[in-house]
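Sanity check

After download, print the first record. It should look like this:
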Amino acid sequence: MKGYRRAAAVILGMILVLSGILKLMDPVGTRLIVGEYFNFFHIGFMAFSAGVLSFILAAVESVIGLALITGIKRQVTAIVSAALLFVFTVITLVLWIANPSMDCGCFGEAVHLTHAQSFFKNIAFCFLWAVVFIPVRNYGEPKKIKNATFALGIISVLVFGVMELFSLPLVDFTPMSPGSELFNVQLETVSADDPVLSFYDENSEYRDSLALGENVMVVSVYDPGAVKNEDWKKIDEYLALASENGYSTLLLASRRPESGSMFSDPRTLMSLNRSNGGATYISDGQIIRKWSSNNYPDEDILKKIITSDSTEVMIESSSHNKTKFQAFLLYVFAVVLLI
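Expected structure tokens:
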């Protein structure tokens, strides 16, 4: 393959791999985006498949990107990538014309594009594809070692995707990411872009100010129906442990599962914490750290956090996760490019 074709293949492949990994990193957010597409195209009856389909689409996108970078199965890659780009381009054109109030989700929550930007992005991708595969001959053959690197890349991406199904995104790109300042919905200075954690009690009285205090531990449940009895018991035990160690505790749910909880919009709770029953530490109105329902902090961690500077706790946790994500990306690209 000529140098310019090889360069175009690597560029397009790296973008597709990054796009797929960003979607795999946030399965809840990707599922919501797929659900919005279902609603837009009036096929909401398929909502039950949004989670599985979003994982498959993100994985396929990553695999095609890896195939482009390594040069494996170039004829098959040409056909599959052409079909994928054609579908994406048509969909973004329809979105540009209709201009619905939704995000394309091309790069998950990491990058937000207008519908026009999404369409022209896909036009640019189609141009790169043409550079790589036209004329449809003289593709050349990759080195045999590339079969092994391609397989290793696929395994790494899929393992990463499966792990993210049971944990929080390594990097949080939502409006309520660690470091964000929460605002009270009743304040006149709040803008549409400000992260607002709004919730109310059983008497329908808004109690947002409870989340703006010092050392607040919130457990949020955006889908109470999916939480088993043993999980509710685990939540109660964790909230009791946090309270014993000096935290003000809140249980926020999208609907009333039991007495003692506050209520909020499901999408708000999903932004606060992607885990259904996840814990979020808030201090003085700033989101500090999050945990999934599979990984509540133990008593030693709770004691350490409450006696530490909240900003340092937030920076240490966020920096650690960002470093792990960057290391994973470097590993994947190093495997498929250098070996």
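If your output differs, re-run the checksum step. Summary of this record's structure: The beta strands are 106-109, 216-221, 248-253, 262-263, 278-283, 286-291.
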